[in-house]
Please model this.
Amino acid sequence: MSVGRIIETPDCVSEGAAYLAQIEPRFDAALSLTGPLPLRRKKDGFAALLDAIVSQQVSVASANAIWGRLKSAGLTGPRKIIRASDDDLRACGLSRQKIRYARELARSGIRFSDLRDRPTDEVIATLIAVPGIGQWTAEIYAMFSLGRADVFAPGDLALQEAARVLFDLDARPTERALRTMSEDWSPWRGVAARLLWAYYRVAKEREGTR
Model:
């Protein structure tokens, strides 16, 4: 099974955005407000997934601050996480629960380089087998760190709110409802996510994702 299209350059994002604007007038209107969409590619590997765990259920500003302290303390690698004390990790801003998740990930033995060539469903199944990594975290990793063009993260609250406003919905869509909506945006659901986050920034005047 193929991994599908990989987003590698800004041109890839522009291609996806043009497709979405063609099939959905509201996306076209949103693009006129947001301008060119960001690439949002990150390195893959342990640190990228730890970063996603840090971002769970906290604001973008809080996640940036915690990640900055972890980097300054040199606590972004699996061996460093295993060797660090709870107090060391707590001082960086990790909750007791996230300390456990970080240690579980460090001990998981995942070969991150192998994930690059595996189908998205297999990638997500491998990641969510680790305690503390749910569907949202796995999808964010597949989208940003592996560049999968057709991955969406419907459990993301900013995406839900952006969809509510852009599509003039009566209420914020549930994760299940937004996942169903996003099927119409294939094979560029990853770009649709970028567009909705960019639109969220314009509509709400704050960041919806890192």
